[in-house]
Every structure is written in structure tokens, then in C-alpha cells.
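Usage

Read records sequentially. Each one opens with the input sequence:
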Amino acid sequence: MAGQERRRQPPFSNLAHIGNGTRTVGNHHHNVGTRSEAPRDETASPPNRKTPYSRNRARFEKKGCRPRGKPFDCPAVHKLKHIFNEIHYELVRSIAEGGMGMVIEARQHGSDNFSKQVAIKLIREEYSAIPEFRSNFVGEARLVADLIHTNIVQTYHLGVIGGQYYMVMEFVNGKNLEDFVVKHLETHQKIPVTLAVFIISRICRGLAYAHNKTDAQGRPLGIVHRDVNPKNIMLASEGDVKLTDFGIAKALDLMYNEEGEVIAGKDEYLSPEQARCEVTDARADIFGCGIVMAELLCGRNIFEGESPEATRENILKMTLPDFTKMREGVDPKLNAILHKALARPREQRYQTASEMLTALEVYLYSDGYGPTNEKLAEYVRDLYGPHGATASHRWMHKTK
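and closes with the structure output:
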């Protein structure tokens, strides 16, 4: 079996397949072949006319199942507790590789020629053996397992094979936001203002969902991403904007980097409280959104210095610029939004991602039609097409 052979093989650069037993848990409380609403009163139906409920009842009674309100009480389902099956992943190509691991495009194969495109995040065996690193990786998978949102890359499965941990994730066919920024710099173009604002509004939308997530008991999880930066934002070919890599996120019972002792995050995208090694809350991610939006508009990170220390000093003390003077098309309203998102005292920032999302959407749509997923997808295709060097000009011409 492929899963057994992997234990003696060299690191995952030679892997072609991952086969791993997995289990899903089910129970008799799930509906089986019926609607979730209560059955209709059949006495209200004309004589001799079969209702959808009566047809379902007859079909299930033939199988030894008798409806008792909702759901149907079916002996076969009542006894079902586990489904065991072998999931086979065929590794297709490397998407990204670093010193600690890599991300691979793969295909998940099932019965009857079922196939699904996925991404597999693998960490090297030597790092899997380090308890703190392993805990962070497992913690990320546990944290995002139930984060199901259009603007967050989904995680489907966590496994280990041959001593190496891996995470099966949603495959996003598209471009990384960092590459999107670089493409504009290479072609001497500026990202259209409305698209820059739209991209950050979608990230705020995903963060608002994550920040408000609760556990099964209704307790707030207190999720803080702590690493909002262009490398962790994907632009899907359909126009969806997706936040990924919750690797250093913190949450209730899932924080392995002790705040106050280490700096979690990339220096250029730290909030002031992160730069000071203070305990963070969701408002740290608001500051990150402000940094990324300023970078999209200005073509560079305004806080980046010649050294990590200089960068952190800029984040803490540098006077915020007047963005109306830095970029044509930025008006006083957008300048005010940027300054509020980048306020050093977090009490002066937007207090929630939802609040910042509202401000951005009011800016985009208060005067009428604004950008959409479809328009962003169209622009990205144009930018990376044969005439991409003038994509920004065409966008500005169309939106005048």
C-alpha cells in the first residue's frame, strides 16, 4: 500500500500518491431523503391524491423505515455510526515550496471515477518531529476546519503519513495578491482604486466571519489571523478573494506562540500591538487590512524600512501620509478610511471588520454601480493576457 511504503522513503519531493484511511461520523439525527420542514396535513389534500409526504412514506416503509415526524426513523440509518473508506490523493505538481514544506496541486480520487482537484500542504518530516511546529500545524487545521466562507480558503482534512503531516485544502485556481501587485509594477501600471478597495472589502468580509466564529457551545473563539498580507490573499479566476494561511492565528485553546514573548507575523504587516509584543485582538487584523490597502494603492508597503527594526519603528511612530497626494484617484473619503484603519491606538481604529467592511462598501457603491467578483475576474484575465500592459488604462476608460 502507498501509505505503508512512505515510511521508509526520502522526503516528500518523491511522493506521487498519498493514500490514507479516513473516517466520517454520522448518526441517525440527520435527515434521510426528506424535507426538513414538518409533514403536511394529508387530510387537507383531495381524495386519492398522493402528496410528496405520502409518497416518501410509502417508499421508506417498504424498506422497513417508518416516519415519526422528522427525521425518518430508519433502522439502517439508526445503526450507522461510522463510514470507513480509503481516500487516494494523486500528487500533480508543486505550487509553492519553502524550507519547511510545500504546497502541491493534487487530485482526490474516489469510487466510480470520482475526482476532485485539491491542494495539499505538506510539512517536512524533520519539522513534523518538532512539537511546537507540529502543534501549530495541527492547530491551524483544527482552527479552520469549520471556517466555511466564500472569502476563506477551506480545509478538508488533516493527515500524517511516513512521519509527515499534511493538510488537504481547497484548490484556488487564480493568482496570489503579491504576484498581482508585482505584475502591475513590472508593467508600470497602477492598480485601479476601486478594485484595490473591493479586494480589501472582501478580506474584511472573511475576517468578520472568522472573528465572530463560535464553538459548539456558543463561546466566541476569539480568532485573530495576525498575518494579513498579500502572500496570504488569493484572487480566484472566478473573481472570489480568499484569505488563507491561518498558521500563526490565535484562538481560544489554540494559541501556541505566547504573545508578549515573541512577535507573530511579518514585520512589514504587523499591527502596533504586535510590534510591541502585546496581546492582540481582532483589531490587529484591521491594521493589517489598512497596510495592504495602502500597498495596493501606492505600489509599495509604506512602513517597510531598511531593516526589521526600522520597519517596526515606522509602524509605531511614522507620520501617516496624506494618501490623496500619494495616489491620483484617492479622495478625502478614502484617505479618511485608510487613516482610521491605520490608527495606532486600536480604540481609534474600526472596532470590527464588519464596521470597516461597511465603510468600504459605502465608499464603493453609494454613488451607484461598483466592482463585483465578475469584474475583478475580467480585469485579472486582461492583466495576464496578451495586452496586459494596458489593462489598467482600459479599466479606467470603461469605468469613467
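Summary fields computed downstream for this record:
- The chain has two domains: 2-25+84-170, 174-399.
- Residues 193-211 form the longest helix (19 residues).
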